[in-house]
């Protein structure tokens, strides 16, 4: 039932150009996907149409051309750089006499190869089951004769009905297990919220360098490779930020144009780290000629998962591949960081990145000079524990003179916790 090609098979690729922007796909990206799947592309069939054909997606003449390419190259599979309907797949298979895979099936197969954790494997299986459920007729066409009548009535269901029932049961089972994972994530998130640790989420187009940057920042040893979807399973690490303190950094799955909806739905638990983040670090491969289009595609997916309103800091990565670009921070009219230029591979600009992150999530900082009398030892101890003291000295009368810098919310909480008016000790506000 779970028919899939084996890595290393010979494939004929099919790419069709459409005038409609929403139907356009990138040929170079198809070649990267095929390479990431471990498939050997031996021929490429291209063409152009105004709209897809209902029967073959391509015209009948182009379908014959694809079949000839399969026969001439002894290919095992045909891979379309487009989404095909189940009927189009079946019709093409009958013409080509081999397995036909669409873009969604190819991405699902790469995900199946990459998933490492229990949660990741469950999410991929859920997406595969949802995709396959519309294509179950394949392999059971002989059962179409079972239409009832004399001699054909039976006590049980057809094989196709059995498969559909088993699929529904398996999908329900996986959803229940993923719901438990989601609850565990929510508990962890609540614990982080209680500890007031902000969450940062790395997002970006696939192969933009997120995992390399993640490893550079955290020394986490996450698998990173120059291929699409090298990272599937989310990884969380604690980092230390100046003026902010500890924060959680999450590495997430890369996005891609026309990301299959089954995948978006299946990876909902993972993508919640992105939805709940205080700041998104949008990593962009600035050496890629299609970077502007990739940025748009990432923002489209962020809107799909209800994370479009989360503040972003753009990280312009791979500057080592650009001419005359040095690490620096771009700021808006109000002086807030909007872009940081770095090279994760070479470790360039990482200090500037930390500075920009601290400024972005630590903007609500307060800075005071305090004069604290000796009797307020409790307040003094609290300030030491919060590690917010930038300078200290003693007055002649024994009062403690101290400069503090901390998040505004910490100042208000300190006031609430000590049940005293801290403003009476403030001698200067910076």
From TrEMBL:
Physiological role: GTPase that associates with the 50S ribosomal subunit and may have a role during protein synthesis or ribosome biogenesis.
Localization (cell): Cytoplasm
Organism: Lacimicrobium alkaliphilum
Name of the encoding gene: hflX
Required cofactor(s): Mg(2+)
Key words, A-Z: Cytoplasm, GTP-binding, Magnesium, Metal-binding, Nucleotide-binding
Assigned protein family: Belongs to the TRAFAC class OBG-HflX-like GTPase superfamily. HflX GTPase family.
Keyword Cytoplasm set for record: yes
Pfam assignment, any one: GTP-bdg_N
Main location: cytoplasm
Protein name: GTPase HflX
Domain Hflx-type G intervals: 198-365
GO molecular function annotations of the record: GTP binding; GTPase activity; guanosine tetraphosphate binding; metal ion binding; ribosome binding
């Amino acid at each position: 039932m779970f028919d899939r090609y084996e890595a290393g098979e010979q494939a004929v690729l099919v790419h069709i150009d459409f005038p409609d922007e929403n139907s356009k796909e990138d040929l170079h990206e198809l070649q990267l996907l095929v390479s990431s799947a471990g498939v050997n592309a031996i021929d490429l069939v291209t063409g152009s149409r105004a709209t897809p054909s209902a029967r073959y997606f391509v015209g009948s003449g182009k379908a014959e051309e694809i079949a000839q390419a399969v026969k001439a190259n002894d290919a095992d599979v045909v891979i379309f750089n487009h989404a095909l309907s189940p009927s189009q797949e079946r019709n093409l298979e009958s013409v080509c006499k081999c397995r036909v895979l669409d873009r969604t099936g190819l991405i699902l197969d790469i995900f199946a190869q990459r998933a490492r954790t229990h949660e990741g494997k469950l999410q991929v299986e859920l997406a595969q089951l949802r995709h396959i459920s519309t294509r179950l007729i394949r392999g059971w066409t002989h059962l179409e004769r079972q239409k009832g009548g004399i001699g054909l009535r039976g006590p049980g269901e057809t094989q196709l009905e059995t498969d559909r029932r088993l699929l529904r049961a398996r999908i329900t089972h996986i959803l229940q297990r993923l719901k438990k994972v989601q609850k565990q994530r929510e508990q962890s998130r609540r614990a982080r919220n209680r500890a007031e640790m902000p969450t940062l989420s790395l997002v970006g187009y696939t192969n933009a360098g997120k995992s390399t940057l993640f490893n550079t920042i955290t020394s986490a040893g996450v698998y990173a490779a120059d291929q699409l979807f090298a990272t599937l399973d989310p990884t969380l690490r604690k980092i230390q930020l100046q003026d902010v303190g500890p924060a959680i950094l999450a590495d997430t799955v890369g996005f891609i144009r026309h990301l299959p909806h089954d995948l978006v739905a299946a990876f909902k638990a993972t993508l919640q780290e992105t939805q709940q983040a205080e700041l998104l670090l949008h990593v962009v491969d600035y050496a890629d000629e299609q970077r502007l289009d990739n940025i748009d595609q990432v923002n489209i997916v962020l809107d799909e998962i209800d994370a479009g309103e989360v503040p972003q800091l753009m990280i312009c990565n791979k500057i080592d591949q650009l001419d005359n670009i040095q690490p620096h921070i771009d700021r808006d009219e109000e002086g807030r960081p909007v872009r940081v230029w770095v090279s994760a591979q070479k470790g360039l600009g990482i200090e500037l990145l930390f500075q920009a992150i601290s400024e972005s999530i630590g903007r609500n900082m307060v800075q005071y000079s305090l004069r604290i009398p000796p009797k307020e030892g409790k307040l003094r101890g609290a300030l030491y524990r919060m590690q917010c003291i930038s300078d200290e000295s003693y007055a002649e009368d024994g009062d403690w003179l101290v400069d503090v810098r901390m998040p505004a919310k910490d100042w208000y909480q300190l006031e609430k916790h000590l049940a005293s008016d801290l403003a009476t000790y403030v001698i200067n506000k910076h």
